[in-house]
Amino acid sequence: MNTAKRYLRAIYLVQQTEDGRASTGAIADALDVSPASANEMIGKLETDGLCTHEKYRGVDLTDEGIVHAREALGEYCILERFLAEVLAVESFREEADQLEPVINEIVAERLDTIIDRRPVCPDCFDPETGACESLEVDLEARGDPGIESDADAD
Amino acid sequence: MEGAPVSQAALSSDHQLARLLQIGVVLEELAEARARRNAVNPELDGEFRTVLRDAAEESATHRERLDALIERLNAETVPFEQIEHLVGEQYEPADEFDGVLYDQLCSEATAYKFYDDLIAALAGTDARFTVDRHHVVETLRSIRAEEQAGVKQITDLMETTE
User: Which residues of B are less than 8 Å from A33 in CB distance?
Assistant: First the structure.
């Protein structure tokens, strides 16, 4: 997933949490980047017509920005659910965050063919927990194709 | 939508490399399972069914090559039977030649894109791995080249049947 899409997803989720415009600081925190980096990308998204940004008031996605943000959120949900359901990864949220830059949308669409994603996705995504509300997996029953060096993930 | 280049931060440990290779294995298993199912579609002519059987064999070979890398990272692969079962749960056979062609093209193109991004991520990281990075990249490049040839084979078939 490219950087712009990750920003759109983050802005969308922050707007949901804050029930209004998203502050640059909250967006930077969500993505673990500096406010300067966040400002730079927000400027690019605004140039592309995907959001509006008013100083001291924050960022608001345009209708087109919301469409792209929801697509990005859906792709992220696919990755989380794939890791949890198919690979039985216990720390699926953390690993989804780490791996998503390498998972392109066409790869996500293919992985989507073997997971049990809800039709309401991505509306079932909980911005507070960073995961799908309906994602409950019995990891032990699935049998994790283990990776010995799990501690390396952090 | 245009965006900044993909971040390479996803690849900084043996663990992450092994996980991405496991995803590669799943993509190959998906391709193999779907090609095998499509290959027994009686609506298709014998020549195309042979193409699908060959593609399934190629996916199996790719999976074995990825498995070898995963094993050297002290990780486990994803059993083919598990993915074959999941494919079976969701699979709906295409009832037209074009649908099967498109499905096969999707398998080849998806795998190609995945390896392309993984190779780029390896090129963009300074992380040190237990396995020889050069060997991993050469293996992935070789598999990517075969996926690219697969894409060409299917697009050529599409053009000749138009």
Answer: none
Whether B5 contacts A3, CB under 8 Å: yes
Query: What stretches of chain A adopt beta strand conformation (E)?
Result: 51-54, 58-61, 125-126, 131-132
Q: Do A110 and B107 touch (CB under 8 A)?
A: yes
Q: Which fold has domain B14-160?
A: Ferritin (1.20.1260)
pLDDT along chain A (154 residues), means of 10: 88 92 94 93 96 93 96 94 92 89 92 90 85 68 57 41
Which ipTM was obtained for this model? Answer: 0.88
CATH number corresponding to A3-66:
1.10.10.10
Phi, psi (rounded to 5 degrees) for B138: -65, -40
- Chain B residue with CA closest to A5: the answer is B3
**Residue ranges per structural domain of chain B:** 14-160
Q: How far is B10 from chain A (nearest CA, A)?
A: 5
Cβ-defined contact of B16 to A153 (cutoff 8 Å): yes
Residue B77 burial (C-beta neighbours within 10 Å; 0-12, 13-18, 19+) = buried
CA distance A78 to A74: 6
Q: How far is CA A140 from the centre of its chain?
A: 25
Domain boundaries along the sequence of chain A: 3-66, 72-140
Whether residue B3 is predicted with pLDDT greater than 60 in this model: the reply is: no
A57 vs chain B: nearest CA distance in angstroms?
Answer: 25
In angstroms, the CA B151 to CA B99 distance is: 15
